[in-house]
Amino acid sequence: MFATKQLRKHALECLRLQTDCVELARVAHGHDVQAHFVHMAAFWDALAISGPGSSVGLKLSEAEQTT
Questions:
Q1: Beta carbons of 51 and 14 less than 8 angstroms apart
Q2: Separation CA 54–CA 7 (nearest Å)
Q3: What is the pLDDT of residues 32-65, one digit of tens each?
Q4: Residues in Cβ contact with 42 at an 8 Å cutoff, skipping those fewer than 6 apart
Q5: For residue 3, what pLDDT is reported?
Q6: Nearest to 60 by CA among 14, 6, 7, 12
Q7: CA pair distance 53, 41, nearest whole angstrom
Q8: How are the residues of the chain apportioned to helix, strand and coil, as percentages rounded to the nearest 5?
Q9: Contact (CB, 8 A) for 39 and 64
Q10: Distance between CA atoms of 26 and 3, rounded to whole angstroms?
């Protein structure tokens, strides 16, 4: 039960951050800033789906560094 609550809390926090990034992308001036927030929204979405113990965040960060 505790683990389920923690997973739900993690997912909700990630989705809140994703929503914030989408809103920031919408109001941002400049393509680079918009692209950054769109990328961050995708990052938080992937982290919400994968759970707190996954390495998705690390993989996404490494992929960003190679592009």
A1: no
A2: 12
A3: 999 999 999 999 999 998 887 777 666 665 655 5
A4: 60
A5: 84
A6: 14
A7: 19
A8: 85, 0, 15
A9: yes
A10: 35
- Residue 26 identity (one-letter amino acid): R
d(CA 13, CA 16): 5
Domain that holds residue 11: 2-66
- Tokens (6 digits) for 35: 């692209």
C-alpha 39/C-alpha 65 separation (Å) is: 12
Residue indicated by tokens 């994968």: 50
Number of domains in the chain: 1
CA 9 – CA 6 distance, rounded (Å): 5
Beta strand ranges found along 1-67 (DSSP E): none
Which residue from 8, 28, 5 is spatially nearest to 40, judged by alpha carbons? 28
Task: Give CA separation, 67 vs 30, 60, 64, in Å.
Answer: 19, 11, 5
